[in-house]
Design goal:
The complex is a heterodimer of chains A (185) and B (427). Chain A has 185 residues and is α+β, with helices and mostly antiparallel strands. Chain A contains three helices and twelve strands; from the N terminus they run αβββββββββαβββα. Chain B has a domain of 202 residues. The two termini of chain B are 31 Å apart. Classes of the chains: A alpha+beta (185), B mainly alpha (427).
Chain lengths: 185, 427
């Protein structure tokens, strides 16, 4: 192959390499700008990813949906429709296997497992990782536990922007203060 | 090596072994050769430099600098990537040396990883490590062919293995066979084939001769989802495949240390046989095994592949004498499927098989005057004896005598061979 052909092919590959992260950014920015914000009550735990750094895993209070329909495949895509409760936190309105016609906000999530004994569907929400500065992740977990003891029951929540099924985790708050700022206090 | 020969030249002239003219010719020949050969040391340092810088970059970005705004962090995500791409583009366009291509390719590989890692960090993208690794290696795959980079090929294999382990062995994702791993390895094979054809004796080729079977050995277990007992069968067939590949004259005529297939195949076979030489393994096997499962079909596919290699070797008349190691997988498969009436028969047969393999290996070692092979055979028998040490009701005296006998065996065979070797040298 001629050098120039090789080079043109490489330029194509380079463009794809640039396009993939750019596309990732574009999708997220679009949801952040135009999506609806929801607050999800959550509990953080701190693990590590070797390439992307420290993060906290978020366990959401809304992770189960009572239903008598027992035919769900693990890892199946589901459409979770949302509403807010009196305190302004997100609640599950309904869970569907195919999207509804109505224009209400929903998240594409995955089935964890169907619990036959309690007749509930366990749901895995996609925004379960919040990357933090390496020095702060462990402190965040501890701070959450302390805040839990000090005041109202579960006052940690994730702010998530939702648009057309896509969801972007913007920040995590403890007592309405961003978690990274809360840890510094 | 060359400088050693050149240093010897004055001594050779002094003792009138060679004339001055010949010495001059030898010297100029090696000088010419040296000037034209790419500097290997430079290549190795270049690649290691890029590797360390790339990894360091990823680590620094993983720190998560939360004092920077999203926009600045995004610029940092693209900066190393663009730099890497410019350098690689330059080395393609200007037809730079091997060193340039390998070093810039290595840097680009890690820059791609750093870039997508930082983007997922900025936006808290979901997705586990395995999907991240897959995106990474897929994005870098074409560069291997564009640069004809061997280092990238090795990185690809290493990271594909990492991906498969993450997605197949992880606790959270148990039950996910990493099928895409097979595709990832298949996509690298054309490069490997070219390398085997053009540079069969290069160091990098022998590295790949090790990396590919090693990677497959590590990953195969990830395909075992629930049916753990079939794992033994899967592995023994895989090792049979490697052994038979390693026996192909193309690999077999090379030095043993370059032939990862034959070594991994042989040692792996012995380990699995030692494992299944215990009675309790067969008791479990009888209880657990499920036919017509996912694992079962993989075993059949692997078995057909191995038989194909074996058949082709016969067709090409590469196999001139019967060599038991090549057929162990057939023997074991038959035991696996027909040995379920009791646990005693397969246990005894596996023990006998191991013993015979040990003896055959000792004989081959003795015939070829190869101390390594001879002691490998003795090692097989010793391991067998040690395994039996733990699970039989033999009396301590008999077990003791067994150990002493094998110990003497080591001394006598090695001594006998040394003596024979000396006699031949004298003749």
């Amino acid at each position: 192959m001629k050098t120039i052909h090789l080079f043109i092919l490489f330029v194509l590959v380079a463009l794809i390499q640039l396009f993939v992260p750019a596309q990732m950014i574009f999708n997220q920015e679009n949801t952040l700008e135009e999506g609806t914000a929801y607050k999800f009550r959550t509990q953080p735990i701190d693990p590590t990813d070797p390439f992307r750094g420290k993060y906290i895993t978020l366990r959401y209070d809304i992770n189960a949906y009572p239903t008598t329909d027992s035919i769900w495949e693990p890892q199946q895509d589901i459409f979770v429709y949302l509403k807010t409760d009196s305190l302004g936190f997100a609640k599950i309105d309904q869970v569907r296997k195919i999207p509804l016609e109505a224009e209400t906000e929903y998240i594409i999530a995955k089935v964890n497992v169907y619990d036959k004994y309690q007749d509930v569907l366990r749901i895995h929400l996609p925004f379960d990782r919040f990357y933090m500065k390496e020095t702060k992740a462990k402190d965040a977990e501890i701070a959450h536990r302390k805040a839990q003891r000090d005041s109202l029951p579960n006052n940690t929540y994730a702010l998530v922007f939702v648009k057309d099924g896509a969801s972007v985790l913007e920040n995590v708050f403890i007592n309405d203060i961003p978690i990274s700022a809360y840890v510094e206090k | 090596m060359h400088s050693k020969i050149i240093k010897e030249l004055p001594d050779l002239i002094k003792n009138e072994v060679i004339s001055k003219e010949v010495a001059l010719k030898i010297e100029s020949y090696y000088r010419f050769k040296e000037e034209n050969a790419p500097n290997k040391l430079f290549l190795v340092f270049g690649v290691f430099g890029s590797l360390l810088i790339g990894l360091g970059l990823i680590l620094m970005l993983a720190h998560n600098w939360d004092q920077f705004s999203r926009a600045i962090k995004t610029i940092f995500a693209f900066l190393p990537l663009v730099i890497g791409q410019i350098v690689v583009g330059y080395s393609i366009l200007k037809k730079k040396s091997r060193t340039w291509k390998e070093a810039s390719g290595t840097f680009l590989f890690f820059a791609v990883g750093a870039s997508i890692a930082l983007v997922s960090q900025i936006y808290h993208l979901p997705g586990d490590l395995s999907s991240f690794l897959l995106t990474w290696i897929v994005l870098c795959l074409p560069v291997i062919y564009l640069l004809k980079s061997h280092v990238l090929a090795i990185l690809h294999i290493v990271f594909a293995t990492y991906f498969a382990c993450e997605s197949g062995y992880g606790y959270s994702s148990s039950g996910n066979s990493p099928w895409l791993y097979i595709l990832m390895i298949a996509l690298i094979l054309p490069h490997y084939y070219m390398l085997l054809k053009q540079n069969p004796k290069a160091n990098i080729t022998s590295l790949l001769n090790w990396f590919i079977p090693l990677s497959a050995t590590i990953v195969l277990g990830a395909f075992v989802e629930t049916n753990y007992s079939i794992g033994f069968l899967l592995y023994i067939i895989l090792f049979g495949l490697f052994y038979n590949i390693g026996k192909i004259p193309f690999f077999y005529t090379q030095q043993l240390r370059r032939n990862g297939y034959v070594i991994i195949g042989s040692v792996g076979t012995i380990i699995i046989l030692l494992w299944t030489s215990f009675t309790w393994i067969w008791e479990d096997l009888i209880r657990e095994v499920v036919f017509f499962s996912n694992e079962f079909y993989i075993a059949i596919a692997l078995c057909l592949g191995t038989l194909a290699v074996l058949g082709y070797s016969y067709y090409k008349k590469w196999i001139k004498e019967f060599h038991l190691f090549q057929y162990v997988f057939i023997f074991f498969s038959m035991l696996f499927f027909f040995g379920f009436s009791s646990e005693t028969i397969p246990t005894i047969l596996v023990n006998v098989l191991l013993f015979v393999l040990g003896l055959i290996t000792i004989k081959i070692g003795a015939d070829r005057f190869h101390f390594g092979v001879l002691n490998y055979g003795l090692f097989i028998i010793t391991s067998l004896v040690i395994c039996r040490f733990f699970d039989t009701n033999m009396s301590f005296v008999i077990r003791g005598l067994l150990f002493v006998t094998v110990g003497f065996g080591f001394f006598i065979t090695n001594y006998w061979m040394l003596k024979k070797q000396k006699q031949i040298l004298k003749k």
